[in-house]
Amino acid sequence: MPSLRVLGIDPGLVATGYALIASGPGHAVVVDSGVVDTASDLPLDARLRTIYDDVHRLLASHTPSVLVLEDLYTEYRFPRTALLMAHARGVVCLAARQHDVRVLALSPAEVKRAVTANGAASKEQVQRSVGRLLGLARLPTPSHVADALALALTGLSRLGGRLA
Fold first, then answer.
1. What is the distance between the alpha carbons of residues 144 and 8, in angstroms, rounded to a whole number?
2. CA 153: distance to chain centroid?
3. Domain containing residue 36: CATH number
4. Regarding beta strands 15-23 and 5-10, do their DSSP bridges make them parallel or antiparallel, or are they unpaired?
5. Rounded mean pLDDT of the chain?
6. Of 26, 101, 120, 159, which sits most exposed with the smallest number of CB within 10 A?
7. Could you give the residue ranges of the DSSP H alpha helices within the chain?
């Protein structure tokens, strides 16, 4: 089976985490990871353009098989956060569509359950599990990168790859 390349994106207006993994013989390896930061003093359209441009470059340079990102969710106390995340998520989906890359949306609980066996896992539990599953020497940081790695790992497993 050819190597699958899965790009996980943890969308956010302030910081968008990304992680590209590839399926190896019996395990997954991290190809690239990082964070797209946007300056809070920039207007919304400029911040979205930064996210779009960086994701566009990642898709062009890495040609993933699929892009996995968090499905939309909201906490009733913070509806504005969901709206801002939706903006970031929208430009990520647009970039994927322009590169003919399939988008897989997963709920945060589904991703947590896949990597930790607990749908209500803490950020620290996700970091530890992702580090263990990928055989990393250090915990993945910041949490946006750990979340993107968890998304990519879960996407890989949904496509028939192995988590461990």
1. 10
2. 9
3. 3.30.420.10
4. antiparallel
5. 92
6. 26
7. 44-62, 79-98, 108-116, 123-134, 143-158
- What's the domain range around 98? 5-158
pLDDT at 20 over 60: yes
**Nearest residue to 110 (alpha-carbon basis) of 153, 78, 65, 164:** 153
Cβ(62)–Cβ(18) below 8 Å:
no
Helix (H) or strand (E) holding 34: strand 28-37
pTM, 2 dp: 0.93
Amino acid at 50: T
Residue 33 domain flag: yes
**pLDDT, tens digit (0-9, with 9 covering 90-100), for 108-148:** 999 999 999 999 999 999 999 999 999 999 999 999 999 99
Read off the amino acid at residue 47.
R
Question: Is residue 164 situated within a structural domain?
Answer: no
Over residues 80-100, mean pLDDT: 93
Q: Record the tokens describing residue 97, joined without a space.
A: 């569509």
Q: Do 11 and 85 touch, CB atoms closer than 8 A?
A: yes
Q: How many domains does the chain have?
A: 1
